[in-house]
């Protein structure tokens, strides 16, 4: 069970502790001591080993939406500074996202202080800026055709992810939701059947209202059981992946290539699609805004993505133990 680390921080203007007026220094000391004492009490044994420096984090792996970026899809100055400080200390970051290679990368990747390969499409595509595509996996054609038929029968939007492209029969209000996340703009290409065998389709997403997708999920699970894997990153979007695929598989492949022991990696995430990588890595940290699957898989919980939760975890488990705060 993960234990909460995202505790209230002392801020200017916050309600003062009940102490005599004028004892500002004493008040600060009590606030800091109380925070440290409470954090120590709440840390589980595994997380405490990293927080104390008895075990060292050598690499950070982070989800993007809902984790690395705030709710406005921004990489905040605080998160950027923490990650750059970690990289300067020899602890770089790898992003592991369900997103495609798209416009968002220009706003994020250059500011992380890392030149390592990055993981996209739920672990189905690993790309290196210098070397290009290192790893790629695609859906089987018969799975794609069945998914197209299912979407048509049930009246939901289906988008297909092909490297740095997203295609659909025709764009609509559902496919346009992807623009907020700065994904490649979805392209209307007509019947998707015509693209099967022509485009390298790695994953599909059924898109509709959150309620409608929840209603359809049992039928999708039954239809593709033992033949494809399903996950959700964003409410109202149900993803179809090659059987056995996950971010955890992609992270494992890259760690082996880099020669990094998973036990020395901190993973951060918020969604169902982050579960496998949180379980794989030595320290799995869920965001304060995480869903049940990520919370259950995590060893610790940081602040929300609206509160620089990634920065707080980096400070607690990477910079603090190295005396860099």
From TrEMBL:
Annotated Gene Ontology cellular component terms: cytosol
GO molecular function, one term: phosphatase activity
Gene3D superfamilies (UniProt xref): 3.30.1240.10, HAD superfamily/HAD-like (3.40.50.1000)
Transmembrane regions listed in the UniProt entry: none
Name this protein carries in UniProt: Haloacid dehalogenase-like hydrolase
Taxonomic classification: Eukaryota, Viridiplantae, Chlorophyta, core chlorophytes, Trebouxiophyceae
Source superkingdom: Eukaryota
Pfam families assigned: Hydrolase_3
């Amino acid at each position: 069970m993960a234990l909460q680390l995202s505790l209230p921080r002392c801020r200017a203007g916050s309600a003062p502790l009940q102490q005599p007026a004028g004892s500002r220094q004493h008040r600060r000391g009590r606030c800091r001591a109380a925070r440290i004492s409470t954090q120590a009490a709440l840390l589980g044994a595994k997380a405490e080993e990293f927080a104390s420096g008895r075990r060292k984090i050598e690499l950070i792996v982070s989800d993007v939406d809902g984790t690395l970026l705030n709710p406005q899809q921004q990489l905040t100055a605080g998160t950027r500074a923490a990650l750059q400080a970690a990289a300067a200390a020899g602890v770089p970051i790898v992003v592991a996202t369900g997103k495609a290679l798209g416009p968002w990368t220009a706003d994020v990747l250059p500011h992380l202080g890392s030149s390592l390969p990055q993981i996209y499409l739920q672990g189905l595509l690993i790309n290196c800026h210098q070397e290009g595509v290192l790893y790629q996996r695609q859906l089987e054609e018969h799975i794609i055709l069945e998914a197209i038929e299912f979407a048509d029968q049930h009246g939901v939007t289906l988008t297909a992810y092909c490297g740095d492209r997203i295609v659909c029969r025709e764009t609509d209000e559902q496919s346009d939701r992807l623009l907020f996340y700065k994904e490649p703009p979805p392209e209307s290409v007509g019947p998707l059947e015509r693209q099967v065998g022509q485009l390298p389709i790695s994953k599909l997403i059924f898109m509709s209202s959150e309620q409608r997708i929840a209603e359809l999920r049992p039928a999708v699970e039954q239809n593709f059981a033992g033949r494809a894997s399903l996950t959700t990153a964003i409410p109202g979007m149900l993803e179809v992946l090659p059987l056995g695929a996950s971010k955890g598989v992609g992270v494992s492949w890259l760690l082996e290539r880099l020669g990094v022991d998973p036990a020395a990696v901190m993973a951060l995430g918020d969604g169902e699609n982050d579960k496998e990588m949180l379980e794989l890595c030595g320290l799995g940290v869920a965001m304060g805004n995480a869903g049940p699957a990520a919370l259950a898989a995590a060893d610790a919980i940081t602040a929300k993505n609206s509160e620089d939760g990634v920065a707080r975890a980096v400070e607690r488990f990477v910079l603090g133990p190295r005396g860099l705060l």
